[in-house]
Amino acid sequence: MTEPDQQTERHVSSADDQAAIRARVDALMSQMTPAEKAGQLTQYFYFRLPAGAATEPALGLDLDAQPRMVEEALGRGEAGSLLFLTDPAEINRLQRLALAGNRLGIPLLFGFDVVHGLRTIFPVPIAMAASWDLQTIERGQSVAAREARAVGIHWAFAPMVDIARDPRWGRIIEGAGEDPFLGAAVAAAQVRGFQGTDFAQPECIIAGPKHFAGYGAAIGGRDYDEVNLSEYELWNTYFPPFQAAIEAGAGNVMTAYMDLNGVPASGSRWLFTEVLRETWGFGGFVVSDANAVRNLVTHGFAADLPDAGARAVTAGVDMEMAITDPAYAHLPEALQSGAVTEDLIDARVRKILEVKLRLGLFDAPYVDEDRAREVLADPEHRQVARVAAERSAVLLRNEGSLLPLAVDQLSSIAVIGPLAASQRDTLGPWVFDFDLDETVTVLDGIRRTVGDNVRVDYAPGIGVVQRVFPSMFDMFGGNRPADPEGFDEDAEFAHAVEVAAAADSAVVVVGEWQNMIGEAASRSSIELPGRQLELLQAVVATGTPTVLLVMNGRPLDLRWAADNVPAILDIWYPGTQGGAAVANLLFGDVAPGGKLPFSWPRTVGQLPMIYSHTSSHEPDNQGRRYWDEQSTPLFPFGHGLSYGRFEYTDLTLDHTSIQAGETVTVSATITNVGQRAGDEVAQLYIHQRYGSASRPVRELKGFQRLTLAAGESQTLRFPLGPHELRYWNAATRDWVIDTTTIDVFVGGDSTAAQTVSFTIAS
Questions:
Q1: Is 289 a residue of the active site?
Q2: Dist CA 344 CA 282 (whole Å)
Q3: Is the pLDDT assigned to residue 58 strictly greater than 80?
Q4: Is 663 helix (H, G, I), strand (E, B) or coil?
Q5: R_g (Cα) of the chain, nearest Å
Q6: CA nearest neighbour of 318 among 81, 103, 73
Q7: Residue 10: pLDDT above 60?
Q8: SS3 assignment, position 684
Q9: Catalytic one among 289, 444, 557, 738?
Q10: Rounded to the nearest 10 degrees, how much is the dihedral formed by the CA atoms of 357, 362, 367, 371?
Q11: What's the start-to-end Cα distance of the chain, in Å?
Q12: How far apart are CA 89 and CA 143, in angstroms?
């Protein structure tokens, strides 16, 4: 990557700089009308979809009227921000309209869902979390920020840091899984990647962790449905990733759509004033999710749009994200009626103007279109994406060391399944500015790697499976999959089995099409869609050694595969360079080392399933809670194999007793006793035996990823201090460190057996 342009680099670090910004904001605000102030607090979508695009009816979107309405608001100087634009020429055009229409010369702030890349697409966020590699995660978002800023985007609606414990919820794909410790570490790494040391730098953007708070705990895993969480769960499980993101310097926070304990999150003063600002000291700005302020009326919380705007502003929401008719456009009415004060509106406007000044937009509002093309084409970005895909893959099973495949011992490979050759599905959901032509599929990667030495035959085997209710993202070109004209599934199925039977090895790719997961993509089942299981069973029945690749963003029902397929590699939706990464993993050029960021259930009836449950009653029967199925995961949290094999020894403590507030250091030696180099993520868990509350049987409190050659050993050290040992107690309604005994476990997943103990004295 090229070095930042030192001539345009801006930092706001000195008191003088901050005082100058405050003075300029004061001068601007003294001249602004209530309507202009409300405009600065409004962010509009700007939709220009292809002609003939079918929009989701729930959006109520008129393709002609919506952009015209936005441009009229720009002409009146009554818009503060736009989203859903990635073309630098269009961003410049709209910025010119805004500056021409704003009598005070206030520029627009541009935001976008930079979730896992912009032009260079990285593995989906749940996959990046599965790498357990904070440097890789940070590096990926740094590339995403560089590309976004180059085209004129100043702010990402990411990372999503919602804890997700029910994989029926489609947006599990955007987060880091079920665990608050891992989730907090991943959240902070993403913020550092987006913002660098200062989001005002020319290759950085503002990070906007979302959705505050509890969005991932929707009843039944149904997106947008209400959430009921105790304060115990909020403080111990759902808040930590947000707090970590704030402590890492996140400049923005996004609200959540749903009711939290009976109060719409976007209207909760407790969340956005008492917790976010007063408790954590957040100094950035808050934006609503799309139409979430308007929806305070839909919730039955606000009487009308003026009331909705007044309630959200009072709660602490600085900016409303709106598609049409924003509630904040009615703030002048609320001001006139006395529902809000001018001081309150001014406090919200100040946040927005300060950000724009800090980014230097008043002095340099436009983007360099030539440089944008150069940055988007940077080949180093693709290499970063390939490495991320390699490090994200999780080897779930490898009986008989079938993997890695030995190319010199193969004459033919069968690649089976429609997802193996689908460029769009390789990228995953939540991407909009991708280049399909440069996307490397699994089939592409295998063919490029083996060259002419091995015959590679491909057969899709089955047709595309469609959703019962279409995705709202299908309105964007290429997002809805389709079979080629004249596709005969029965004939293709038979052909795929013939191809597999004739090959030395079969690689079968199964999973969900990318429009089956993400926002508004909850499922009542986790079964493989369509005839994928039937196809897999038929291929295995041929007797050809079979490798199963899973393309997914949530756990799927792999019970049959876990008993019958020797090698299973979870490749997630691996991104632009996904196929190249998968080939490197299959043929042993790199070793897998990812670990699951969630407990993998056997069946949907077990959900939600977490490793960090309490002992409760009859813990010896924990695995027999259901009479018809084991109540244990198919694969435990933290599970993942490699091409090496690892043993843990010499687990020791530097103290066997500490006082509350002190730190104990845990040491362990890990040795690769296998025949090949491999990657491992060493994980540390604790269990508090007794205290003023029941505590989970295991809690993750440390991890380190490392690469070891065959026979190599390394000693690792983990600190356990006040941050790791405290918890929020529902009885005292405060953080506590109990007088107790702590059991410590270190190993390769959440079932780690190596253990030592220490006491905490009062």
A1: yes
A2: 17
A3: no
A4: coil
A5: 26
A6: 81
A7: no
A8: strand
A9: 289
A10: -70
A11: 53
A12: 21
